[in-house]
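Structure tokens please, single chain.
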Amino acid sequence: MPKPPVTLAILALPGVQLLDACGPLDVFAEANRQVGHEAYRLLLLACEPGPLVSSSGTRLLADGWIGEELQAIDTLLVAGTPQAADLYLRPGILEWLRQRAGTCRRYGSVCTGAFALAAAGLLDGRRVTTHWAVAAPLAERYPEVQVDADAIQVHDGNLRTAAGVTAGLDLALALVEEDLGRDIAKQVAGHLVMYFKRPGGQLQFSRQGSSSPAGRSALQSLQRYIAANPAHDHGIAALAARVGLSPRHFARVFHHDVGMTPAAWVELARVNAARARLEAGREAPKQVAAACGFANADTLRRAFFRHIGVTPAEYRKRYVRPD
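Here you go.
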């Protein structure tokens, strides 16, 4: 005799990104098909009555909205929107989130939905993840929250958070594994043609970093020089000489203006240069290391993994451009 279905609700923020909401719903719907009965009763909720306009302009008809009398919710997820960092949520929405999170077995967010949970005070003292592009703003705005910018998904007690957009599918699959077992989750992954466990973290998809010079004009010129010549000597003394400052004063000014030490910036610039060469796929890691200023392939591998979360070999296999 199958267990009664549990209610899984996704709250779509105004301007929701469709994949943040519909992707996880499809994972849970496929789980229902794989087990042959309704393990999950699925609800798409809106913050206000009426059609829900997504970020693509497509309109959705939600199953309900937060002002209505709703059944008990087992799992509540908040789906994000590209405007989440600047989105105003009225106090009634935040209070509803606080109340529901207190009665759910588990709650969480997909992508930038973490901003809504943070605004409601539901992430204080917790470890979370969100889209890599807004991880720093989330951490700055809510210093009580421990933001992991690389994780695809994070489980912290009854809290579940997913990284950007498609990571909502990874989170949903992990919840299916929790509820219905590893075999069912594997069947769902196979049917949806997705990784059962995605390799690496989300920073491998990030295009942020040393490509955007910061600070006063002399330092920006220096950063462009480093990015264009990653194999050159970029020690403190050499860099300070290029801008006419003492090494000590240069290091202090650089860190103040740019937000990181010169050595950290140089390493990031070299990693970004290595990414471009690996994507071209014409050089071995040893050649890439030499061209980008790393002492050897092992030094490249360690720095690359630290910043990107995968090895150079794995990255090249995944992102090499066809001839």
